[in-house]
């Protein structure tokens, strides 16, 4: 062999699989590096043969358009296929600024069944009775910090939504549909309950969407309840401006004495908490309960037309709880310190 001669090495099966996964990434994005892949793998809460559940951090886009570098779906194609030929697919979406549980299907069958389940929020029309019964137990709960407090401690918001175009069609905004019903609208229903007293002019609430619409929780909080989510400047800019300019004086729930939430001395707060000048969005998908799709897939897609034998040792439902991001943890701890 002479100096400078080329040596051709055959590509292994494993390397061809890696190449196939990386080809799934949109052409206008850069390939994720090893650190980004390891970072996404650390977000995984659960993985089985049918699904992958992650705890999405804020500011990470879920679905990438051409200008977006390494959105979650692109990263998942490279980092979360594990021993499968193809990467997982998104079942539902979260806003870029929000955080919490996000579900991905590992196969085409599991993804399609779960997407239909989220579209109807637990109202499956399947001919398989055990699957339909299990779907009725599905629930999704969010925690949010809102400015102000709802008039009622708990309730049901049934307010249809519609979309309007602004800036000559360049931007889109979701609003409550007019009661006349003349415009196209989508049914949107949300259950809510208040988790504690109002502190620093804000309240923690739990939201349970019964429909799956774009910006449903943000619009329902801002326009239906009149309490926009902290950090939601799209739907609550003017309320944020007034809230930051007004001195907040609250009342202790036990003694009834007034107090003001102050920054404790000697503690550095991460940018984005409730005490920062520009808080991040305080909306987090905390809990998800859904049917164990890995158990029911043989009955849904098997050759026995819904009469396949199920693995009885597997649970009918799976429940996941995701910890809050750091800026929401700081806000929670600050406000909870007055409740001790």
What is the CATH homologous superfamily assignment of the largest domain? Pseudouridine synthase I, catalytic domain, N-terminal subdomain
Oligomer: single chain
Rounded average pLDDT: 81
CATH class assignment of the largest domain? Alpha Beta
Give the overall shape, derived from the CA principal axes.
globular
Textual characterization of the structure:
The protein has helices at about 15-20, 35-40, 70-80, 110-120, 130-135, 215-225, 235-245, 295-300, 325-335, and strands spanning about 45, 50-55, 90, 100-105, 140-145, 155-160, 160-165, 170-175, 190-195, 200-210, 250, 260, 285-290, 315-320. With about 350 residues, it is of the alpha+beta class. It has two domains: about 10-135 and about 295-330, Alpha-Beta Plaits, CATH 3.30.70; about 140-245 and about 255-280 and about 335, 2-Layer Sandwich (Pseudouridine synthase). Strands 1, 2, 3, 4, 5, 6, 9, 10, 13 and 14 form a ten-stranded mixed sheet that branches. A two-stranded antiparallel sheet has the order 7-8. Strands 11-12 form a two-stranded antiparallel sheet. Helix 2 packs across helix 3.
